[in-house]
């Protein structure tokens, strides 16, 4: 699952003293960068601003949708510095009065709940549930589900919308299986996620409506009889009621908020990345055929797809907890920093020919830097391992079962959703050769 602004967070160290050598430095004057933020929502072209800013001003001053000032970081080295430095906080982005990239469309306490997962003792259970080997959804389970969906696509016949007929139901079933929610409810739970992941300059009446509905649904499962529970929900309830520990800090509401957050972030990240991965392969038919003949190379291909695809639509946000120097810029305490993942992942200083889709870039013996699509440092996607397997199994089945898989329309006719934290194609209609 490629990283989003709802990444899981581990507890952060207390704020360091601001009176460091960095704080005593002279702040670099930096005018606003001449870019429109957010960048283009097209998911098939790397925004030209990435290369220009990386070359001219890798830490650039921008103005966000909310009218707040922020620093946009576009180089790999500086992006990694920000993501790994504990003085930059994800959790603080939910505090009142801080600069934002867009208005909060989930209750602020939800971000705090996810930020406190580790201190509440939930973190290890979340990691265990999303582990591809120890979790309930094995690679075999994913493969079987993918085959079932392709069976239905083949019966329907081409063209088929890969988003509605494959990526969404496949991802919803996976996350429901892990969390312990009914599979048949997965698509219904997804139906309102667009509200929760909308980017808007101001909060609006319906922005938390889908959260409230899904939270109430999950809360009923948290409060169900133990014999009716399964997956992560049951494990979290077992943890709450464990006589060996003090479970008073784990409330039904906290567990429900955790599960609801994991569903939304998990489903959105996995299905959108899968669409981008399929689109990239269809735009590189020779490499797709090569991968079809070398299925053992799929794990390395997935890493390259995670690097080069553009599913993350907005910068990863952090609030500086004290004055910190980033490159030539002194970021002051309380300022917002946005890490531009597509800029970092296409930095030629760290990835040779970054615009080239290279199946062997992360293969055996590779010396390539790791991509930053899962973040870095203390903030990371708890489903990073299962996400890799999720994509690998789905793509392997698509290539095996649908020879000649290709777009049913010119790529420049795809419609990309506006106002969303992800770059999402509204439809991805595909054709394939009859068997």
TrEMBL record:
Highest taxon listed in the record's lineage: Bacteria
- Quote any Pfam family the record assigns: p450
- InterPro entries attached to this UniProt entry: Cyt_P450 (IPR001128), Cyt_P450_B (IPR002397), Cyt_P450_CS (IPR017972), Cyt_P450_sf (IPR036396)
Q: Where is the composition biased (Low complexity)?
A: 1-29
Q: Where does the record place the region Disordered?
A: 1-36
Q: Which UniProt keywords apply?
A: Heme, Iron, Metal-binding, Monooxygenase, Oxidoreductase
Family as reported in the entry's similarity comment? Belongs to the cytochrome P450 family.
- Write the protein's name: Cytochrome P450
Organism name: Streptomyces beihaiensis
